Amino acid sequence: MTGGLAACHRSGANAPQTVTLASIAYPDQGHQVYNGLTGVVVRDGWLKGELAKRGIALAVTPVPTAVGAPLINEGFSAKRIDFASYGDFPAIIAVAGGVPLKLVAPLGQGQDVYLVVRNGINAHSIADLKGKRIALHRGRPWELPFSKLLDANGLKPTDFTIVNINPAATPAALAAGSVDAAVLLNDGLLVEKKGIGHVIWSTAQAPADWKMRAELFGRGGFVSEHPDLTQLVVDAYIRAAAWSAQDANREQVIQDASRGFLPVDIIRKEYASATYPWRERFSPIFRPDVGAHYHSVAAYALAHGLVHDQVDADALLDDRFVAKALKDQKLEGFWAAGSVSGTH
Amino acid sequence: MSFEPVPQRPPHLSQTGPQTGIAGAESARSARGALTISSLDKSFTISGTARKVLDGINLTVRPGEFVSIVGASGCGKSTLLRLIVGLDDEYTGEIRLDGERVATTSLDRGIVFQDHRLFPWMTLEQNVELALLNTDVPKSRRAQIVADHIALVNLTGFEKAYPHQLSGGMAQRAAIARALVTEPKLLLLDEPLGALDALTRVHVQNELQRIWMQQRSTMVMVTHDVEEALYLGDRVIVMTPHPGRIRRIVDVDLPHPRDRRSPVLHRLKDEILAELTAAPTDTTDDARGNLVLLPTREDR
Amino acid sequence: MSLLDHKPARFAVGLVAPALLLAWWQWQASRGGSNAVAFASLSTVGGAARELIVNGTLLADAAATLQRAFTGLGIGATLGIALGIAMAMWPLLDRLLGPLLNALRQVPMIGWLPLIGLWFGSDEGSELIVICLSAFFPAMLNAHAGVAQVERRYLEVGQIYGFSASQRFRRILLPAAMPMLLTGLTQSLAFAWIAAIAAELLMGASVGLGVTMQQAQTQQRLDIILVTIAVTAAIGFAINQLVYRIRSSLLAWQAPAQ
Amino acid sequence: MATAPASFLPSGSRRPGFKLGPLPQALVPPLALFAVWQLACLTGLFPEQVLVPPSTVARTLARLAASGELERDVGVSLRRLLVGFGAGALTGLAFGAATALSRWTEAALWPLFLLLWQVPVIAFLPVLVLFFGIDETFKITIVALATFFPVALATFDGIKSVPRAWFEVAQVYRTRLPDLLWRILVPATVPAILTGLRVAITRAWVVLVAGELLAADSGIGQLMETGRQLFQIDVVLAGVITSGVIGFLLDRCARALEARATRWKDA
Question: How far is residue B223's CA from residue D176's CA, in Å, rounded to a whole number?
Fold first, then answer.
């Protein structure tokens, strides 16, 4: 409480009127439902209440998944957005483009990427697909795990015909035989369920830092000017993570994740296949693999000419807020400090 | 020629327009619609070279007179009307109506075009009433005046019709009603019946004669048709082309309404046609080439 | 004289092609295999339609999309008509803005998105701007052409009766340009409708036909995609017919075409 | 609109040295826009990542042009445009003529046409992919579809507005069908169809660029999309300028052709 009051004084002079949070959202029955922990934060209402006590409004901006990343980057650069929970790749691109960001809270173990092969193609590994046509939407975050997969197998993109295509059109392309395989997110599981093809590989079989990650990023300027407000936002996410980590809330979390998105059985299947305990799915810990992941994203982006300047991944990570939140909420030790998944 | 006042004139006629009362010494009758044209020249510039279309036009039209102008294509007769009505004001010389120099359009001068130019998006009634828009006729009386003029051209019952629903002759009569509704001192008619078939034409000619006799405004009509010119005109101006000049002015000293079979009309028609066809219509060369071939102007 | 002179018969003939299309569709769906991705059987589609009607999604979607399309149309077409008329009346304005607008017209919407994203974020405003832009250009071009093509002979009539500038505009230019204005408006409406769906599909919103379509694409629910396509087509068609009727009554003064 | 009116000015009214021709005049507003744009960037009110100064965009354009990337993308896009436009225009002409000339085909096909016209192409994506794959055929199909509808509509309207009397004249002279088509129908409908084609080509261009975003490895649309994903707004704006200029030129060429082919109208 005293901390709160002190914070109030610290940012009193130039406190913003609104804190804006952007998050990927899906339309569901006439409403935008926010993906993952943001959904819990919004429903919880704690953050809204805390901000209101300081006379600050909370604005949550939904962004559609298809155009989410550029939209959030544009919003960050125009200072229309203060925080966003979105992907690793666009965040690196924003930083390289001169929009300073801070990773203020990791959000879990990352998202798996799937390699789906259409029916009638006899392939069991990426090497079997040599010379074949692979659908991949370029410039999207799942390009990175695919690239790592190629590297690990001593393959080059030129060993395949890479077909740049929107994920919405990918199932039809697989079904029609226009492409032989596709790199997809968990919609790949849906392709499998529809009987169009089957998954031959996913990042679940790869080191933890191969997964596509999404975190809570804060706008650099905002974080340094308003550490108190940043702390509040991070607190709210930790609360949401702790709530989601409860086994009792497991079913609710699965239902929420499926809303406006994939069928619930796909979500359940994906979650069930995880090699780590349920609570770790929501871990906000700055584990070594998180740092390693951002180093590798930054290096990949530079190596492939996607950005022109080296991004300092260490400067991106800011673990002060999570540490304080864990301490304040007495959650130290609740989540594992080291890597929890991976076969390597 | 003397004209009797006609009792059927619409009552608002007695109101003076904004431009009347210029020549106080003259009688009210002679003050309405006296047109004087003197030394009128008009040229167009076509691809850099000036071409004379009207050359030294002198003409006086008495108030209440009906003057017809005939001539071959290119004699500048339509241009002359555009100058008189004020749609074109680039000329040298003088055009005066009741002593006032013509510079722009005015409600004193009405015109009926060959194409009726009724607005297709308005009913007959609305088209006629449109002409009263900028007059000082009170709004309460406009409907009656419009109805009177529609009746004058025998179109009662078609008030709500759109132009496309009218026949050519009806549309042309509607255009005459629109031109007359403002009570212009001078009504100009630019081949008003040119687009009509022969039978309709005769019919509208009779109508026009009746209307003129009823209204007694000054009218100047341009036409290709010599017979029509003679049938309606107190005088017929014969023009020759390249450049447009008045070649002859014919007096038609017959009372109205006229009989088409009148031998006088037939004789005059033959005379005028002979005059028109005799004139060389050389269009191959420029105007200066024609100049010497043309007979001198016969002016009275 | 002909069967086609009877309205119901004509209507029935018009149904043959869609019916054949549906039959072909059903046949494709029944072949199974890869076709299942692009063709859902008619009974599945019917089931999805029932589901969406019963839970109210379809009605809410249609209402939201219509509202978006018409708001965008209202703003875009009004501005377009005003600017088109102004450019036709003042040649200087035309010479200054004409080429620029003509070039801007050719810029695909994707080019605007970053700037729209910058100024309007992902709010409803962004979608509205996209719809407004789509509605703006046809309205502007046709209004311009309509006013520019008003025949001189009609303007001369106005001159003869001493029309003021406003009388000339209201009594001659506007009605004479009306057919073209309405043509532009019809095009604007079609573009606004398509843009509303596309904006919902690509830019996200909470309710709308495009939203449901996009969601169904994610979930690979062909039946729902087809229902939304059908509703989109039907509403677009209905609007088209309505506009046609309004146009006919507004332009009753025009002679029939033949 | 925006024809070149300067040539109708009275000649010699200005000394040639000071005469502002139609082209420079047309350049004034874009130049003014660039100036305002550059000034807006200099104020620093807008983040430079999004409101990229025109000087940077110009450098990016030069870089893309020098590397051959621009030429390749524009070339690919234009080829798709031409093939797709050709296919769409031909089918549109045929369909429009067939429905306008026969009451039966009109009654049978026109309602379906109006129905399909209302659906954005993007909604049909899965069906299109299934039938046309995702290679060049797919992109060409999208362009062809975008061309088909306006051309069919213009052809239909154009033929419908040919006065019946002209057909009657043909009937009186027992004109054979090819002559009827070639001597009456074609000249009478050419203005309307050309207008339809002009509308279609600019529309096709816009749709092509949009289509390239969905599935393409090259082309001006893909250039812009990649630019946006990678937060290189200068590349996006370079694409905007390129596609705007190309669209503008296409429109101008189409207008010039239209004016040439319909000279008899103004005579």
Answer: 42
Q: Domain total for chain B?
A: 1
Q: What are the phi and psi torsion angles at A104 (to 5°)? A: -95, -20
- Complete domains list, chain D, with CATH: 55-61+90-261 (1.10.3720.10)
Q: What is the Cβ-side half-sphere exposure of residue D24, based on CA atoms within 13 angstroms?
A: 5
B129: domain range? 11-299
Instruction: Name the residue among A160, C236, A259 with its Cα closest to residue D217.
Output: A160
Per the CB < 8 A criterion, the answer to whether B193 and B105 are in contact is no
Assess whether pLDDT exceeds 80 at residue A10: no
pLDDT band at A20, cuts 50/70/90? very high
Q: Calculate the dihedral angle through the C-alpha atoms of C196, C197, C201, C204, rounding to the nearest 10 degrees.
A: 40
Q: Does domain C58-250 have CATH number 3.40.640.10?
A: no
Averaged pLDDT for residues A280-290: 89
For position B63, which CATH number holds?
3.40.50.300
Write the residue in C14, C117, C213 that is nearest to D123 by C-beta.
C213
Is B57 domain-assigned? Answer: yes
Instruction: Report the residue of chain A nearest C61, measured CA to CA.
Output: A30
Contact A79 D134 (CB under 8 A): no
Q: Where are the beta strands (DSSP E) in chain A?
A: 18-28, 31-34, 57-63, 83-87, 101-106, 114-118, 133-135, 161-163, 181-184, 197-202, 214-219
User: Which residue on chain C is closest to D247 by alpha carbon?
Assistant: C106
Query: Of A80, A86, A137, A138, which to mutate for an interface test with D (greatest number of D Cβ within 10 Å)?
Result: A138
Flag whether residue A166 sits within 8 Å of chain D, measured between CB atoms: yes
Q: Give yes or no for C161 touching B (CB within 8 A).
A: yes
D3, D8, D119: best to mutate for the C interface, most C CBs within 10 A = D119
pTM attached to this predicted model: 0.78
On whether residue B187 sits in a domain, the answer given is: yes
Q: What is the CATH number of domain A114-210?
A: 3.40.190.10
Q: Cβ separation of C37 and D243 shorter than 8 Å? A: no
Strand order in the sheet with B245-251: B109-112, B186-190, B218-223, B66-71, B235-240, B245-251
Q: Please answer yes or no on whether A164 and D48 come within 8 Å at the CB atom.
A: no
Contact B134 C171 (CB under 8 A): no
A touches B (3+ CB pairs < 8 Å)?
Answer: no
Q: Is the pLDDT of residue B6 over 60?
A: no
pLDDT of B45 strictly over 70: yes
Best mutation site among A65, A77, A190 for testing chain D: the one with the most D CBs within 10 Å?
Answer: A77
Which residues of chain D lie closer than 8 angstroms to C2, CB-CB? 103
The answer to whether B134 contacts C167, with C-beta atoms less than 8 Å apart, is yes
pLDDT for the residue A216: 93
From chain C residues 184-243, the ones with a CB under 8 A of any chain B CB are: none
Q: Which two tokens stand for residue D114?
A: 């109006």
How far, in Å, CA of D194 to CA of A269, rounded? 58
CATH superfamily membership of A12-110+213-328: Periplasmic binding protein-like II (3.40.190.10)
Segments of chain A assigned to CATH 3.40.190.10: 12-110+213-328, 114-210
Taking only the tens place, the pLDDT of each residue in C24-38 is 888 877 776 666 666
Residues 109-128 of C with CB under 8 A from A: 113-114, 117-119, 121-123
Q: Phi, psi (5° rounding) for residue C182? A: -70, -35
Q: How far is CA D48 from CA A70, A78, C118, D55, D57, in A?
A: 15, 9, 11, 12, 12
Question: Does B5 fall in a domain?
Answer: no
Express as a percent the part of chain A with pLDDT over 70.
Answer: 94
The band of A237, judged by pLDDT with boundaries at 50, 70 and 90, is very high
Residue B230 lies in a domain: yes
- Per the CB < 8 Å rule, is D244 touching C201? no
Which of these ranges, A76-90, C70-84, C165-179, D207-221, has the smallest mean pLDDT? Answer: D207-221
| Contact assignment for B85 to C157 by CB distance below 8 Å | no
